[in-house]
Design a protein that fits this description.
The structure is a homotetramer of 202-residue chains.
Chain A lengths: L13 H17 L6 H8 L3 H7 L3 H26 L3 H18 L1 H8 L7 H27 L9 H21 L10 H12 L3
Helix pairs in contact in A: 1-2, 1-4, 1-6, 2-3, 4-5, 4-7, 5-7, 5-9, 6-8, 7-8
The first copy, chain A, binds a DNA duplex (21 and 21 nucleotides) through helix 3.
DNA sequence: AATGAATGAGTCTTCATTCAT
DNA sequence: TATGAATGAAGACTCATTCAT
C-alpha cells in the first residue's frame, strides 16, 4: 500500500517543513554564515536538539532546503511541458515561471540566488546534482524545438542550455542584488525574445 | 608628478604582489574556506603579521585579488575596443578574450568562478563594484552596435548586458566544474553566434 | 512472608534482567562511553522511557550491572568456603573460580575489567562498596589460614587482601587487553603458588 | 650539535610544562570528566588557544601528562638498577620508590591511580605503551634475580611481573581511595616481604 | 619593516531524561 | 505499564588579528 493518508516519513511530519521554512527565513534575514542552528531552531519554535531528529547535520538542512524549494521549479516546468505544444512557448513559460516563483517568495529568492552560493564545494556539488533535473527538462524543450523545426538544427544543446540558464540566473541575481526594486516577471518577454532569436529558425 | 621611477605606494612594493599571488594559489588549491591568512603568509614567504602591513584585513586581500585580476579582463577589453571597428567583432573578441584569460590561468579560473563566490554578501557587493568597469565597457559595445545599426534598436541595454555576461559566466563556471577537461576557447564562436543572433538586426 | 511465588519487586520482573543483560552486551560491544541509554533500550527490546521505570538513572543501571554480576563471584566464593576445609585450597579455588567466570563470559570480562573502570569516582566508590562483600570473604580465608597455622601469623590481613586481589585483577585485565588470546584458567596454579608462598608458614 | 643551552623544542618551552602541571592539578581537583580545556588554560594562566600551540588536542595533553610523570618513575627505577647489586634489594627500592613518588605528589597520585583510568580505550592503550618501559625494567630485575640464583628458576616472568605490578597498583589505589590517610611508604617492607617470599629461592 | 607567539570569541552536536498519550 | 518525541545544557577547537620585540 503505497498511498496512505498518514505517513511515518520524516518529510511528511509537520516539524520537517517547519524547520525547512524557518531555515529559509533565517538564512535570508541573517545570511548563510550567520544562520546558526540555534537561530533556525528558535525560528521554527523547536529545541536545538529537535533539529537533529529530522536532519543529519547542518549541511543536511541546507541541502533539503534547496531540494524542497527546487522541486517547485521542477514541478512548475513539468506542468508547462504538459500544457504547451510549442517549444518556443515552453521556453517563454519556463522563464516567466522561474521569475514568478522568485518574485512571490522574496526570502527564497535571496537564499537561492545569493546565500546558498556561499556554501562550500561539497554542498555546491550536491546542489548541482539537484539542479540537474531542472536542466534535463530544459534539454527536452530544446530537443523538441529542434525536432519540430522551430529551432535551428546545428545548435549545441549543452551550450544552449548554459546560455539560457546562465541568462535566467544572472537576471535573477541582479534583480535580487538590486533589492528586488523592479518587476522581475515583466522582464520575461524581453529575455525570451533575445534567447529565442538566438536559436530559432529563419 | 604621476610617473616616478620609485614609489611609496604599497601596491608597488614587491611583497604586495607576492601576497596577492600567494592568495590566488592558496585559494585555488585549498578552497575559499581553507585559505587561512597563515597559509597565504607561508606561501608568500612572509610572516603572518606582515600581511597586515599591506592589507587592512583578510577581506581586503580578497578584494585586492579580484581587483588585480579583474584589471586583466578590463585592459584586455579596452584594447579590443580600440582595435576593432564593428560591435559584433568586439563582442566576439570579448568572449574569446574572456575565455582565453581563464584558460591560461587555471588557478585564476577556479578562484573567480568558484571560490570567490563563497564570500559573504558584503564582499560580493564590493566585487560587483569592481565588475562594473568591465560591464560598462560591454555597455559601450552595445551602444555602438545600436548606433551603427548592427543591433536592433529596441533592446534593453541593461538586460542585454545581463544576458551576455550571464552566458559567459555560466559557460565559464560549467567548464571549471567539469575540471577544465575541454577547450573553453573553442566554444567562443558558438557562444558568440547565439548571443549575436539574439540582438542583431535583420 | 519472604518467599512468594509472585513478586512485586522490580528485580524479579523479566524486563529488569532484560535490561541488565542488554547493558552488558552493549557496553562490551560499544565501550562504556558509547553505551547510550537508547542503545541499551533497543538491545533490550523496550522503549527508552521504560528504562526509567526500572532504574533511577543511567548510573543506576551500571551499578546494578556490577551488583548482579558481582553476585556470581560472591556466590561462587561462598560455595567454595563451604566445600573446602583448608585455607590454601580455598585460595586456589577462589583464583580458579574467578578466572573461570571471566573466561566463560567474554562480555562480562570486558565490562568489569575495562569498561566499567571508565566510570567516574562516584560510581567507582559505589562499585567498591559492592566489592567489599567479596573482599570480606577473602579476609575470612586469610583469618582461617592464620588460625589454622597454615599462614604466617604476622601478616597484615588488609595488605595481604590487596596483594591477592591486585594480582588477580591485574592478571585478569592483562588477559582481557591481550584480547583473551590465551587460557586464563590455566594460569591459576602459578598465580596460586606465588601468592601462597608469600603468606604460608614454614 | 645535539646539546645546546637553548632549544626550540616545544617540550622545553616554559608554557609546555606550565600546561602539564596545570592539567595535573585540574584533573586531580575536578576529576577527569570535569577537566575542561578552558579550566586547564585558566589554571596555567594562558588563553585557551595557547594550549593548541603546544598540544594537538585534549587527548594529547593527557598522554603528555602521563608521559612526563611516568618518566619520574622510570628514571627513579633506572637509578635504582645502577646503584643496587642484589635483585631483592632492587625490588625493595622499586616498591619504596614507587610509593614515595606518589606520597610526595598527592595530585599526581589521584591522577594516575584514579582519574586517568577513566579515559577511553584508545588513550588507555597509549598509556599502556608508555607503561611498558617501566615494566621492562621490572623484567630486568626478575631476570637478574633468576640468573643470580636469588629467585626460583621456574617462575613465569610475565606472570610474576603482573603479580608485582598488580600488587603495587592495588595498594596504591586503595591508599588513594582511602584519601591518603595513612603512610603509604611505611607499607613498602610488608609488600616487599610478601612478594619476595613468593619468588625467592629456598 | 618584519616577526610570530599569543589571544579569545564563537558554534555544532550529543544524549540523559521527561512527560503527554 | 509502556511509549518515544522532544528537550536543552555543555565543550573542544579554529583562526583572524595584535603587539612586544
Amino acid at each position: 500500500m503505497l498511498n496512505r493518508w498518514w505517513s511515518k516519513l520524516k518529510k511528511d511530519k509537520p516539524k520537517y517543513r517547519q524547520i525547512i521554512d524557518a531555515a529559509v527565513i533565517v538564512i535570508a534575514d541573517n545570511g548563510y554564515h550567520q544562520a546558526q542552528v540555534s537561530k533556525i531552531a528558535k525560528q521554527a519554535g523547536v529545541a536545538d536538539g529537535t533539529i537533529y531528529l529530522y536532519f543529519k547535520n547542518k549541511e543536511d538542512i541546507l541541502i533539503s532546503v534547496f531540494q524542497e524549494k527546487m522541486s517547485v521549479f521542477v514541478e512548475n516546468l513539468q506542468k508547462i511541458l504538459k500544457e504547451s505544444t510549442q517549444a518556443s512557448e515552453m521556453l517563454y513559460r519556463m522563464i516567466e515561471g522561474h521569475f514568478k516563483v522568485l518574485s512571490e517568495d522574496h526570502h527564497l529568492a535571496i537564499v537561492t540566488q545569493l546565500e546558498l552560493r556561499q556554501s562550500n564545494k561539497d554542498l555546491r556539488l550536491k546542489i548541482n546534482a539537484i539542479l540537474k533535473e531542472y536542466l534535463d527538462l530544459l534539454d527536452e524543450i530544446l530537443k523538441k524545438g529542434i525536432q519540430d523545426g522551430e529551432f535551428v538544427e546545428d545548435i549545441d544543446i549543452r551550450l544552449t542550455r548554459q546560455v539560457i540558464f546562465g541568462t535566467i540566473d544572472e537576471v535573477s541575481t541582479t534583480w535580487v542584488m538590486k533589492e528586488q526594486k523592479y518587476d522581475l516577471v515583466a522582464m520575461a518577454p524581453s529575455v525570451h525574445q533575445i534567447l529565442l532569436k538566438g536559436i530559432q529558425r529563419g
